[in-house]
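Morning!

This is the sequence you dropped in the shared folder:
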Amino acid sequence: MFQRIQSAALRGIEVIPVEIEVDSTSGLPGFSLVGLPDNAVREARERVVAAMRSCGFYGCSTRMTVNMSPADLRKEGASFDLGLAVGMLTATEQIHIPNLENFLFLGELSLDGRLRPVHGILAVAANLARYSPDTILVVPYENMKEATCVETLKVIASKTLDECLNGLQKPEHAYCSYRECQQVSAAQNKIPDFSQVYGMAAVKRALEISAAGAHNFLLVGSPGSGKTLCARCLPGILPSMRKEESLESTIIHSCAGMFGSCGGLMKSRPFRAPHHTATVASLVGGMRLRPGEASLAHNGVLFLDELPEFQRVALESLRQPLEEGVIRLNRALGSVCFPASFVLGAAMNPCPCGYAMDKRRDCRCLPESIKRYRSRVSGPLLDRIDLQVSVPSVPIDESRLSVAGESSREIQKRVEAACEIQEKRQIFRNGHLDGKTLKEILFWDSEVENFALKAAEKWRMSHRGYDRMLKVARTIADLRQGSRVERPDLAEAIQYRALEAAWMN
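The structure's back. Tokens below.
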């Protein structure tokens, strides 16, 4: 008997429909699996047959041929186990499931018949809700929270193969209800507050502008000056995610096998801080076509502490995503496209010893070693960083006398107000504007424009640097609730390019 089962595979975060075709004929018992399976899929026979026997069914007593279509797509992982088991049981007429074509199966089987969770369930659920809303998704119980994040989809979640088969007989009694699963991650409670940071008003201001307009930033200062602390306060002032952004970011984490760390749909923007030993593949993706840190930071912040210590090739791989907001990978396994619209944040010392900008300690570095150290951050990458800020070292006695500053919540209110202005005006934040739209929303007069052009010429800005300076000025105007960009807005934006000009000269 022939049977066809619906399942799905992931290529990056793209969902590819897969049909598991099972043909059972008389003859010597045997099992053939075709359709470009990897080792994990080939080994499914042993898992599935053992699980069937544990649930009281017999295994391969006939000649069985299984094809996984499309045949030119490589099938990876153990997520096809459940569909394969249902196909074998129905093809050998051990069970009968009405309207089998209405179900899509995903799940890994253990030898005793238990269902184990798999990656990427949310991506499949969102795809079904959009293109095939009448299809019923059948998943392991541990994937239930993930699958039920999509409101309009019908889901059956089971702990064992037996329980799953019973639920398929009367699916209307086995549906899992939709649950609003937006939760604040436990890590959200560990974010330091800006009220804990004494002094450093200029740094706080720069990070506020970065949060409001999605602008890249670089903090340069002596060891222990507070660069990393300020950067780790940033998630507390980032604007809330729209529902579309939340679903998109959570899908990426689901495909990377990190849905459990989200605790549901992501409510807070991701803040990724990889170690400086990170490779190119870990940053942009590519290991078995899984998303990298840049994609996991989509709609959030990718923070690179000790920037010059990263591999040069790893840093340069971020240049294209910073412009396009996507990562295109071409590998032997295939070509994929990952979303990667993130804010790049970085921190570094001004020299190898770290004290070139410290007034209290002498720098021991030779001019050549300082130049060599700073050249690890290339000019093209530095040109893409909108806010370049010097972080002064605050003496301990001054920090004790300083009064605690604004809390992150107070700063976030201003950020949210600025983002609301941008959303009404152009939907997305200023850091993602194209050149044409940018010129249309400045609303400046000729005097202000001439001031900007003269500043660009004096500081020898590139066209990209000039546009990024204008975007920062537009964000500064939005923070003060201004309808047009004024000269003080431009003056503040220009000073954030001073570090680049000093290093390049």
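Headline: The longest strand covers residues 14-25.

More detail when I'm at my desk.
O.
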